[in-house]
Design goal:
Helix content is 11%, strand content 42%. With 252 residues, the protein is mainly beta. Helix 1 runs antiparallel to helix 2.
Length: 252
């Protein structure tokens, strides 16, 4: 049953972000950002469609077709604008944290869970069996937006395991490494790409129903990945088409 949502509450400027689970693998995120009348109309249209799934040519739509129809109604394409440093000719983007509350664990598309060995700054992918599920890393995800614009085709996120320990990407001797790095929460309220702080950010995208990819913001086309076969292997960065690597994850 789709929850009833009062339209007038969407205009409250202090509205907290809320995740509403509509169905398995389908969530509705209500942001604290002030809504336009067009945005509210799109939201109401989407909810009405969810309550009464449409049909096409006399047949009921599949899950993928239904989700695509909903996304077409509520997603607007936007362009990320950059400030330009005219003295150097370089573009500059600053990201502002807008919330940080969603907690979850991660498993890859073959059900290996993400764990951390005690004291280690690397993560591993392991198939956990009964009685050992407490070993899973509990992540906390903060969402960021480029200042002055809305998110584009993906959410920009920071992945943390404590208030001060976060996932980051660094280039060492020509090799991109995924590690856990200590950085205070206050230093990450705003992140600028010209200060190398964008190493902490990832683009979170839906890759399939209930599966997501995480692409490095600083190093485009590099994704968080696990081994497709081997156990107890490190979680590493890879290109999307790298053989033997899995780049899709489920949030649990």
């Amino acid at each position: 049953m789709v929850p009833e949502i009062s339209i007038h509450c969407l205009f409250l400027t202090e509205l907290q972000d809320e995740i509403i689970r509509l169905d398995k693998g389908l969530e509705l995120e209500v942001s604290r950002s002030k809504r336009t009348l067009q945005g509210v109309a799109n939201l109401v249209l989407a909810i009405n469609r969810m309550a009464k799934p449409p049909s096409r040519c006399g047949r009921e739509l599949s899950e993928d077709e239904f989700c695509s129809l909903i996304m077409d109604s509520v997603i607007e394409e936007t362009v990320v604008k950059t400030d330009r440093n005219w003295s150097t000719g370089d573009g500059r983007v600053t990201f502002q944290r807008v919330n940080s509350g969603m907690q979850f664990s991660l498993c890859d598309s073959v059900q290996k869970d993400i764990v951390q060995q005690s004291g280690d700054l690397k993560l591993q992918a392991i198939t956990l069996k009964g009685g050992h599920y407490e070993r899973k890393v509990n992540f906390k995800m903060a969402r960021y937006v480029p200042l002055g614009v809305c998110a584009a085709d993906a959410q920009t996120v920071l992945l943390s395991i404590t208030n001060n320990i976060h996932m980051s990407c660094t280039m060492t001797d020509g090799k991109l490494e995924l590690t856990l790095e200590n950085c205070s929460k206050d230093e990450l309220l705003k992140i600028s790409d010209n200060q190398n702080m964008d190493r902490f950010l990832f683009f979170k995208r839906a890759s399939a129903l209930a599966l997501y990819t995480f692409e490095s913001v600083k190093y485009r086309d590099w994704f968080i990945s696990t081994s497709s076969k081997d156990e107890d292997q490190l979680v590493e960065m890879c290109k999307v088409d790298t053989a033997g690597r899995l780049t899709s994850f489920k949030l649990k």
